Write the structure tokens for this entry.
Amino acid sequence: FIADAGHEIKTPLTIIDANCEILEMEYGTTEWSQSIQKQTARLLELTNSLIYLSRMEEPKKHLQKFDFSITDLVEETVQSFQTLATAQEKTISADIKPLLSYCGDQSSIGQLVSILLDNAVKYSPAQSSIQVTLDKRGKNICLMVCNSAKELSPEHLPHLFDRFYRTDASRNSQTGGYGIGLSIARAIIDAHKGKIWAERRDGDFLLVTVLL
């Protein structure tokens, strides 16, 4: 239902956005036209996320699995977030074991890493550091993303991967999140028969661990 309804929602949103662009060409840009474009973009992003999540949770989801360098994938993703982190007065440090490969859906795993980094950058305070670690743990690949999260209460941890769940501290228009990113991350991990969990470290840090 989500996938079918999502496609029906995307069409009018695209038309609204196109009509708004035409109005701007005719009458100029206004705060109202910019607001329309911003909100349609947010709705399109949410709709696309819901469609992706529904597809990942399909019982007969067929992933395109093949061997790829997960070391390169994580390194490239970390590098792509460096500018965003710097702009928000945050730093990303990485300890990535070289020459690690993994057999899985590369696109989905790439989205997983992006979700975890985006979440860490989005909800960590300024002047803080985000630590990314990729290593081998027995026969498994272990990915860990750690960021400062002093305002995160322990009771929130079991619900972080629930759909639309957002802690009170993150409910503001500046972060712009929907509470669905970590749900997608869990769906990706479930589709790869892996494990993902969150825990507090030293009272002030959130550590998300992935085992593949």
Remarks:
- The chain is about 45% helix and 20% strand.
